[in-house]
Specification:
Rossmann fold; 7-stranded parallel beta sheet
Length: 266
Amino acid sequence: MTETRRILDVQGRVAVVTGAGQGVGRQIALDLAAHGASAVVVNDLDAERAERVAEEIRRTGTKAMGAQCDVVDFDAVGTMFAAARDSYGPVGVLVNNAGNQGGDAPPPSVPFWEQGPAQWAPSIGVNLHGVLNCSRHALAQMVDGGSGGRIVTVISDAGRVGEIGGLEAYSGAKAGAAGLTRALARLGGRYEITANCVALGATRTPATERFLADPERNKRMLSQYMVRRIGEPSDASGMVVFLASAAASWITGQTVPVNGGYSVTL
């Protein structure tokens, strides 16, 4: 094991990564396996994507399973965590990465006061209810296992600054996930369980390709970034692996920005 991997050791814990079939989640799953996870459960809404990443991990010598599951479905999430425990032992690392801006999010031309639950539900469902469901089942296993644990939730800068133009519900859901994480940190501390958020700026993934294809939008956005480039999955994964590792055992209840310095320019 290299010195870096020793410092960022995940300590042989079983990890569950949601939304890990592509993009940031895939990179996190691969990097947790490379840094000492004993097994990785690769969750995705798409079964083929989940299994493809699980196979990538297995080829490196780490145990892995693909787990097709909608994180909004409380019972389905419970079944996924039970399968993880039965196959590998109690879950010790949860990365809440599944998220979207809502498949039915209203276009920017529709003001908030003309929106309704049909537009809000997709964003609130996966970005808040999904985090609630997965954190609840993970925390139960971590407390019962008695060996501590790590919960890392990937949110967006929208949850910190509040985005408009159709992203009002999305911003609220991400802010809610951050508030939940602080509560989990208070709950979990006595059990050596930490809970933190990673707040991402614009990051290049399959899900953001269309958004990032607009050169004028990119120019405006990058003008607010001190490091003038779009984030990559590896930027996000590095912070997540750190927070999941032994090196971060005394860090909890925090929201850490990974955004090219955007926070400083606000």
